[in-house]
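Form 12-C: Joint structure prediction
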Amino acid sequence: MSAGRDTIMGGLRRALKRGAEAADAAAQEAVDQRLSDTRRGLVPARAQIPPRAQVDLFESMAVEQAATVARIASLDEVPAALADFLKGNNLAPKLRLAPSPELENLPWDGQPLLEVETGRAQDSDQVSLTGAVAGIAETGTLLLASGPEAPTTLNFLPENHVVVLKASQVVGAYEDGWDRLRESHGPDQLPRVVNFITGPSRTADIEQTIQLGAHGPRRLHVLLVEDTDPENGR
Amino acid sequence: MEPSPRAFKANAREAVQDPQLKRALAHVKVGFIGKRAKAAARLPEFEALRDAARDIKAHTLDHLDLYLERYEERVIAQGGQVHWCPSAEDARAAVLNICRRVGAKTVTKGKSMISEEIDLNQHLEANGIIPVETDLGEYIIQLRHERPSHIIAPAVHLTKDLIEADFRAQHSHLPPERSLDEPRELVEEARGILRERFLAADVGITGANFLVAETGSSIIVTNEGNGDLTQTLPKVHIVVASLEKVVPTLEDAATILRVLARSATGQEFSTYTTVSTGPKRPEDLDGPEEYHVILLDNGRSEMLAGPFREALRCIRCGACMNHCPVYHAIGGHAYGWVYPGPIGAVLTPALIGVEEAGHLPNASTFCGRCEAVCPVRIPLPKMMRHWREREFERHLTPRAVRAGLGLWAFLASRPALYHLLTGWAARLLALLAGREGRLRSLPLAGGWTRVRDLPAPQGRTFHALWAERQRRAGK
Amino acid sequence: MSETAPRVGLFVTCLVDMFRPSVGFAAVKLLEAAGCTVEAPRAQSCCGQPAYNSGDQHDTRTLAAQVIATFEPYDYLVVPSGSCAAMIREHYPALLADNPELAARAEALAAKTYELVSFLTDVRGMTGVEAAFEGRVTYHDSCSGLRELGIYDQPRTLLATVRGLRLEELPDADVCCGFGGTFCVKYPEISDTMVTSKAEVVEQTGAGTLLAGDLGCLMNVAGKLRRRGSNVRVRHVAEVLAGMTDEPAIGEGEKNGGD
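Section 2 - Result
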């Protein structure tokens, strides 16, 4: 191990008065316990509402943070909804699509004028379309995770980021997001990057007035797919 | 940049006379304070979450060695590297080595107070590598060759006109008629320029709000997305973080994140909260090939051993300085180093020595507003008082003050003598003030009377009058 | 329940004693109206705050020992100052925790130490006063009282019952006035900036009188208002609550007269 490590650990151990065997063993036990215990802390009541209400809360919180949300009945409607988004914002009919089979297999043929390319983002891309892992109702936050089907550059390079989020992916709290990631990736492991995204990029560095589109996307548009039963949210 | 907290008094004097600074700081008072209050009021669990955040940090500090061991294990398991740096010099060297090894010419930087603390930019420049600050506020002050004046809003001391003037001076390609009147236009301009830098950078350096022991992850919190472009596009991602950034689990991070943005800017959540774990995986289409964590001590393990341990709970939200009337009066640069405001008053002496930074913990009325808003309940006034105790023990307190306090204590512990002398003083001052009821000037009291009148005593002391009253009542 | 009146030891404070005894007498009047017997023991001077805040623990302990010895025989220690009350109540126990002779005694005294207005309402259950004061009044919340002792509602509750008084809430009432004990002379320019802000806001309320519960703050702001030629009068809240406003206001002399 390195000299730097020894110096620092030595300093820490002295500061914490390590050296008494029983106390040290108890401390290690406490740490091991804590790390294997993924019990949640205090989760706000706001997040602990029925699934249907979570979807509505997600939408209102996201809109509050300057995202836009369009509800659609099924995944098949995505290409048309995207075309609407482009038209509505006077954007050229070009799209960089995340290389996810679920998105690639959508009826893009129904939009013959739309140029669709998949892969990671290039700087010249104006619009990207990705999926998500979850939508966190608590603050209208999207949870995205990197992977072969979800290159991170799609979330940041283009000026317009469109996200396909299913109602069944909406959860109440951040901790629900961690649970989903643990399910898909295993304990103690995460993908290279997990992004929590709440609205488009912004800055208030000039006289404290908010400007959108600082370095990341200027627009964040969520296509919310109603894939759950309106009665029970399942 | 050389630290200058020794010049605090002169800095402060200059700062309070600066009308531009005053205009700029007015936004701090109105903006941040109101927004935080609103966010806190909106979340019923806010106070309970502050307690929880405090407890998480306190527990972690009590076991910091063990959590760091586990953190390192996980970083390595995910393909990253950890560099343990006892001093600022070690950290600078570690970063430079990595940059040299990969032949880096330019480096993009997300906002990092640690990189300021170790003077990283200067070191890279001296070694032929160009660092480019990408946080808009940091970019602006980089153009001005200034330090940040606030830990989350680095350019808060500047008004729009100053920023425009800098942009014009530095962006020489700009046609003169190009409008930069509005903040919108300034942001557009910066976005364009920095996008080129993002794409060209060989190495990206970010700080970390948290390091998660459970997974070996680093978490950054931004609104611009610059931290994300900094760490995703280049071939190498370097995280610079101090030891006390560790938290045990992802759940702990979530708890503290709930109070971070609300305390800092009044947002429910920052636009981008990004959790990074190691370099790109073989199947990823983008991302850095190398992931390095520079773990900096630079005085933290010493703080852990003493009465300043609680200050290590700090999550760098900036609420303390946003609410501090001294900060409102003088701005961040007057503090003379990296960390301004109440946290700066506690941290700076710990990191660069109380001989150098003694003024900072003294320039406080202990009004307590900082502690009242700190999301992790750091008892900042108490910490500042500890520094004053240290100074007193080491005879760093000015001799006149020591002498005055000694004299006061001598008299005050002898009530009979005390009552006699205060009786004389009350009569004398009342006499000097005459029928005006106040003194416009008084020898030895220039500090007071230069800017305000001194209300005169009523002429007799309470104890003298009380004794008379008791006599009259036959007691 | 015992009907004997509680014995209150009045801690006068160094500033009230030397500069404005009328505040002390107002406190006595209010305490007696609340059914207490009041004594002002002569063996008192200072609570030790200046030494404490300057890092001089030794001298602070000396003065604390004196305060404890003088006041522990009483049922309560009551003081017309939030900062002195907080010193005794909140800081003495911590300061003396490792002193075997004084630790328990400091705890005991702290438990029965109160700032004046909060004593009247929280302990004696006072809900109103028999006083009159014509005019618009604004109120500054002194920092120690507000943040260390939680004093906010109490003075407002009592002021609301003063006949003829109209309370204008002071914007930024909870912002420090810049006194801070030795701070105002160690860092005069910063203190001046702070007290100027305070004076401006006070003037803008249009109130004729400023009140607060700490004489240090009051002298600081009054001195600034006088220097600015302002017409606002400054008094300690006890004076108004006790209906004792014949004395000239703080920083005003016979020339300007009382109310």
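Section 3 - Comments
Chain A has a mean pLDDT of 94. DSSP finds seven helices and twelve strands in chain A.
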